[in-house]
Input
Amino acid sequence: MPLAFVILICAQWLGEVLRRVLHLPLPGPVIGMFLLALALATRARGWLGVPVGTAPLVRTAEALIGNMGLLFVPAGVGIITETDVLRRAWFPIVAGLLISTVLGLVVTAWVMHRVSRRAESRALPGGRRTT
Amino acid sequence: MTVLATLRTLWTPLQPSPLLWLGATLLAYLLGQRVQRACRGLALANPVLIAILAMAALLEFTGTPYATYFAGAQFINFLLGPATVALAVPLALNLGHVRRSFHGLGLALLAGSVTSAVSGVLVVWLLGGGRAIALSMAPKSVTTPIAMAVAREVGGVPALTAVLAIAGGIVAASIGQSVLRWLRISDWRAHGLAAGVAGSGVAASQVAPLNGLAAAFAAIGIGLNGLITAFIVPLMAWLWPA
Output
């Protein structure tokens, strides 16, 4: 658990440093996530435990992600300082939210569905081609 | 001692310390979880939304400024950074899936991320919402901590993005399954990925218990959509100068 936090915080810190040094427009924790994923996929595979998935890092990550909802309550409460924005522009906000969420959902699922169907029918020559 | 004096004795040590608002935030979230369990996991009874509404009402009622509240609640907020980094773990655990369906995954992620970011900005702009609101909308389908960080980066309103991200997650969780089934998409990978990309954690937690493959692809969708959107949205902000 302490070691897991050291790994997470070091990755975040490295992300912040890279962001500053390279003037990246990305948030530090996102760069940290990318760096850690890269490390875990290559040299640091062992940090996930033997067998894979048993290390304290995995348990700590699961605990943090499982309770992530709690973590953004303080920032979300900040909406009380933005009530005039909500009152002024509620219609574009609600419309944009609904339309972009449904479009994102449909496009992602449809492309994934089509491409994997095609890949499967190519993998089985003579197999039934379904649309 | 009168009741009022007793209350004051109890209240005084709490007020200047971070304990009060830290504890109240935890209690509000716990209350939200109870309510959702009582509603049998209804997506609309989202614990985060309930906690935010309850805390907002409490601050309004007690006349507490947001800065005072945040001085206590910042200890919870601090954990957002490590939690974002922790998203690398499910990504690494599901690497096999990423390798196996690399083409479909890459295309679907890119198409989904670009569609939701661009359509959100376009709709807000067309309806006259203005740049700050449009840029707060752009990253909203990403997992909330990344969405807020991206919004801060490009001059949006992080608190608005947080609320939009949760609301979008609720929309995706409530109607996602029906919409996709109506389009005759039955692949669990597509269902999981779409939930992760369009509705992040809220929608993912709704499809994850239904199917293991859906859970894996939802985790992949959340992590990689975060990365892609963190690139796309600053690019859009750069193309649309203030």
In short: Chain B has a mean pLDDT of 86. Residues 212-239 of chain B form the longest helix (28 residues). The radius of gyration of chain B is 20 Å.
